[in-house]
Amino acid sequence: MQTYRPRRSVLYIPASNDRALAKLATLACDAVIIDLEDAVPPADKVAVREKLAGILTERPNRRCEMIVRVNALGTEWGIDDVLAAAKGEADGILLSKVVTPREVLEAGDLLDDNFAPDTVKLWAMVETPKALLNIGALAELGRDPASRFTCFVAGTNDLVKETGVLATPDRRYLMPWLMQLVLAARAGGLDVLDGVFNDFRDADGFARECVEAAAMGFDGKSLIHP
């Protein structure tokens, strides 16, 4: 029986930020996402990926779950990112720019073909209109343990950008999509994480959004650090 691991607080850390990475052992969050995607400029992606093995090797000294966000499989970096994360036996691989179940299945096949341990799970960013339209089919993969798929992460900033909706403090225009995401996750037996709160100086606003996310049914919230 798999041990339950809470995912209430999940912090993004750029893989290029050595100062932030040095603090991993002291962090009180439930999980960290080592980011190879948006946080790393294209010219640095290969060099930063090569650091991943060292970052993951020190996992026994850390209390939190270790996830790696990789570049989309269709990019020049995606496949090698997945293989590097699997070789380091990350707890999970967060797939970016997921649109259809095919991307999740291809990532799973890649892990299986390279004999990655079953403990390496797959997560998926939901950050585009197409992903939302396909959310039911994506969630269905969670019912098959062989898919390795265990968690959705809401990419709220990208959803705002891609759709053009107004980003209000109460998130009224995002709310229908967020609730749809929670509903799909529950149908597929998946965890689901709310998107980041951008204004890290606004502690009251952050607390309010955390309470709101819990009330909506999210398992936790992804975080950024100043």
Explain how this protein is built.
The protein is of the alpha/beta class and 226 residues long. It has a single domain, classed as Alpha-Beta Barrel (TIM Barrel), CATH 3.20.20.60. Helices cover 38% and strands 18% of the residues. The protein has an 8-stranded parallel β-barrel with strand order 1-2-3-4-5-6-7-8, surrounded by 4 helices. It is globular. The model has no long low-confidence stretch (mean pLDDT 93).
What percentage of the residues does DSSP assign to strands (E)? Answer: 15-25%
What is the count of distinct domains? 1
Could you give me the name of the CATH homologous superfamily? Phosphoenolpyruvate-binding domains
Overall mean pLDDT score? 93
Overall geometry comes to: globular
Q: What is the rounded distance between the termini?
A: 38 Å
The CATH topology turns out to be TIM Barrel
Question: Helix amount, in percent?
Answer: 25-40%
Secondary-structure content class:
alpha/beta
